[in-house]
Amino acid sequence: MRLKHIFGAFVVVGVIASNSVAIATDNDKCWEQGWGKGWCDARHRDNCVPPVSPVAPVSTVGREDCQSRFADGYQAGLKTGNH
Question: Which residues 6+ apart lie within 8 Å of 14 measured at CB?
Answer without folding.
Answer: none
